[in-house]
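Q: Got a minute? One more chain.
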Amino acid sequence: MIHLVFNTADMASIEAAIALDETLAGRVVEIKDDYAVGPILDIYETEGYQARRDWWKNILEHSPYEEQLDIVDDKLTVNQIVNALDHDENEFIWIWMGQNAHDVCGYYWLMSQLKPYQGRIQVLYLNNLPFLNDKGQLFYPTHLSEIQPKEFLKAKKLARPITLSEFEIDPDEWKKLCQENEGVRFLEGGKKLVSMPISFYDKDIFSLLTKNAQKLPSALAHIITKMKVKTGDAFIVSRLKAMQEIGKVVLAGNWQKGWKDIVVQMPGGSTVVAEE
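A: Always. Here it is, folded:
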């Protein structure tokens, strides 16, 4: 069995669940790119793939992840999965998804590439389902990493084969989004994704900045914790840079030294960094 997830933090969650239940035994593989943001036009073609890599190179500049661009190769990951399916007729895939645009976009990107293996691909979409947190309280997680490992033992019962109909319809939905090629994909509910402009998160990000100056890592931690709809920290930084260009925020410091040297402040506001 191969377990497919779409976030690094989810890998540890599934591996912990496997340790509790040998029937889940298998390797956990991550689709690393966040297809919920950035260009996706002609994404399966050389030109589209390169355009996306160039976009990410710009986004990741001066970030802690700058060196990771060369190790993110989802196409190679899929090739390895396909080879495993071709060489072992008993091999099968479980795709795990939380109710968030990152996971659902990854699922859509993957779908058309696995169509020949219909019947051997199971999906577990934990969509609008209640789980118990570590205090025994019910909550509705949006990401797999929020779920306790023991709770996955109940969730595994939800695994079902992706139907032939889904293999026909879902890639068409993804093709439509690719042709629209907006900067953001937003999850309305279920598996319904809609295209949004690249500035979609700006209002939320701006509202979570403080009047006092903050070190960038501290501002990011606060924004990500409080955001209603989550997105990645590198993408948030790119939007702060875009806001700086129109005078909405000020980013001071030396980018060459990385995020830790950057201070976020409001125009005309305090330049004294609040104690963290």
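A: The chain has a mean pLDDT of 92.
Q: Perfect, thanks.
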